[in-house]
UniProtKB/TrEMBL annotation, chains A, B:
Limits of the Nudix hydrolase domain: 19-109
Annotated ranges, domain NrtR DNA-binding winged helix: 175-235
SUPFAM superfamilies associated with the record: Nudix (SSF55811), Winged helix' DNA-binding domain (SSF46785)
PANTHER family referenced in this protein's UniProt entry, alphabetically: ADP-RIBOSE PYROPHOSPHATASE (PTHR43736), SLR1690 PROTEIN (PTHR43736:SF4)
MF terms (GO), sorted A to Z: catalytic activity
Coiled-coil segments: none
Superkingdom to which the source organism belongs: Bacteria
InterPro entries hit by this protein: NUDIX_hydrolase-like_dom_sf, NUDIX_hydrolase_dom, WH-like_DNA-bd_sf, WH_DNA-bd_sf, WHD_NrtR
Protein name: NUDIX domain-containing protein
Length: 244, 244
DNA sequence: TTTACTTATTATCGTAATGTATATATGTCA
DNA sequence: TGACATATATACATTACGATAATAAGTAAA
């Protein structure tokens, strides 16, 4: 890590910051990106919403801390979880120095709804991205009642999550983390359109996804439609990643 | 950030980890990616090489800490500096819990050589990437004398830096951070080939780069060649990013 | 002065990827 | 049985890209 001077390792030589993890629990609700928040009832920012988070234990990995918060605060046993960025502004928490490692958790629609139902403290807000492509910038976080101002720098964290997601969506497999195990091509396209904020060309999207080799047809079809049902696909990582 | 319970903010309620920054000082030397290292002379890992790093001050931003390490340990006033990832394995330092925020610093060939000359503690090692594309995995770090085993988990950090760099190279402007202010298209292609570990098609590369709109011809030409000199270009971010 | 040589730069062509429009298939429901 | 809505497949235009060849512009040697 760092210095060679023994002084640097004297536990009392430096004041140490606290380290926390904060989770962006992201899903698609009604065709729009949405995030799960907790309402704060103690200062600072009492009454405001915040991302679920918690301190990192002294004997706990960052990933383990994120998984624990996912379990304890959202009641979710497993989800796609990836480290996003570490926020270290000095006064991001007015009380004390807290460095926060932000994580992105992706939930499919059922998991999102289940968390919302099972955990009384959680509430859902819609994310609207006002910038095109991967420009970056602030996003609007709102419920049907209106805009939701977030505590701390959590709005920046959500904005960064959207930027990262847009960047990774079409070269990685993160899109599938937002879908149930079996899904139609239309559902997959809906997820991409919701994240990217654009409408995509259907045949071209279909071709690209099928050519990628990540989709396995199940032979089953969706039900409950009053029109021709679509084929259900399953995500499977190809064994040979890169044919060279 | 985190909990709503006031207990969470009692400074003595939790044992706090130390937080450090570690820098991957990366440049291209002789057509190969290279990294600047410091030799440790105290345990643990005495005699091994490590990334330059330092603890984050209680009143210091993460970015500021990275810039300070860049200045104090590498003698570099300014460079492209971006946060890479935060490493939080519990026993990554055998003495105490240290969470490290890794930064990637990109140096052009002159800055790399100057740092190596001016700071006696620094040494340069070549990075060899054995995996194709963005597969990921370990990299080989070596000097002409042989492989250089790194202290702590620093080899993982360097490997991640290469993975990140490969991913960002051709859709972002990071490649220009590895070049002097004025450069030829051949130099730009050399940088891309060194990072990606492949040989690229020259006319196609030229077309793509020019069409991107990031290159401004200076009208000047390189000197010192015994053949036709190439035009010198300058990087300039276009004012209109995305023609919609 | 001319020619050889080396690389820069431009042009040409074929192929693959993608956008767009249209046609056909398949289910429900009146 | 036919209207309807969407899935799926096909055809064609446009664009991006790889490969190769042709031309340009310097130095150095004959």
């Amino acid at each position: 890590m760092t210095d060679d001077e023994a002084l640097d390792y004297d536990p009392n030589a430096y004041q140490r910051p606290s380290v926390a993890v904060d989770l962006v629990l992201l899903g698609i609700r009604g065709g729009e990106p949405a995030v799960l928040l907790v309402k704060r009832d103690a200062p600072p920012f009492a009454g405001r919403c915040a991302l679920p988070g918690g301190f990192v234990g002294i004997d706990e990995t960052l990933d383990a801390a994120a998984a624990r918060v996912l379990r304890d605060k959202a009641g979710i046993a497993t989800a796609h979880l990836e480290q996003l960025y570490t926020f270290g502004a000095v006064a991001r928490d007015p009380r004390m120095r807290i460095i926060s490692v932000a994580y992105l958790a992706l939930l499919d629609e059922a998991a999102f709804a289940a968390a919302l139902d099972d955990m009384p403290g959680l509430l859902a807000a819609t994310i609207t991205v006002p910038w095109p492509g991967e420009t970056g910038g602030a996003v609007r976080i709102a419920t049907p009642k209106g805009a939701v101002p977030l505590a701390f720098d959590h709005a920046d964290i959500v904005a960064l999550a959207m930027l990262r997601l847009r960047g990774k969506l079409d070269y990685s497999d993160v899109g599938f983390a937002l879908l149930p195990e079996r899904f139609t091509l239309r559902q997959l396209q809906d997820v991409h359109e919701a994240i990217l904020g654009v409408t995509l060309n259907k045949p071209a999207f279909r071709r690209r996804m099928l050519d990628r080799g990540w989709l396995a047809a199940t032979g089953e079809r969706e039900g409950g439609t009053s029109f021709r049902p679509a084929e259900l696909y399953r995500f499977h990582r190809p064994l040979i990643n890169r044919p060279m």
